[in-house]
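Table S2 (continued). Query chain:
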Amino acid sequence: MKSSLVVVLFAFIFTTTCQAYNPSVNTTIIPYQVFVADSDIEIQAEYLGELTGDPQMYEFTTGVSTTLKLRISQLVTNKPIPFSLIAVKQNNKNAGVVEIGRLRAKDIEWVEEKDKVIGLSLLNSSVFEAEIGPGIYRVEVSTPENFGLYQLTIGDQPTTPGYFRTLKDIRTIQKFFGKSIFSMFGSTYVYYPLGIILLLVLMLLTWRKRDLIRKKYA
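Corresponding output:
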């Protein structure tokens, strides 16, 4: 009985799949310093940044034609921070750039969504999409005053990094937004296994006392 319960728990941990995360914290400290993003822009990745007086710039390179998908997220507040983003392509002919498109703050309708995996309520922008070809691209995130915490999501194809790696990624996002370690208990990746453990313990105790229970009601 005991071994069977352990098998059930480990089967849950190692076979559970859900929306996975691939967060990176933007650690640039020099104004307008470029943060190089993962080149595989189809794979979903979260870039966590804080504006401290200047816009932040992300750069990626693609060797194929694909669809660029971008989204900005922030913590839920009474007054959302007016983030904007612009995507450009480097023009090799004249060393300039060509605008691909932008999300303007005035056009964004922030949608509140409870992300049960990371245990946070976020305001999400609409998804910016653009068909792009091979080349070097940059995405700039800004606000009128250039202050505030945000999450820039590039791509939408999920990955499956595994249970414990996902726990680490969840904590990275929570910590970035100023949440304590106790916030981990708000994640389904934590409280579901805890619930299973509690249920298994109760079942084990009941199994061990089955003879006493049988005699009591005989």
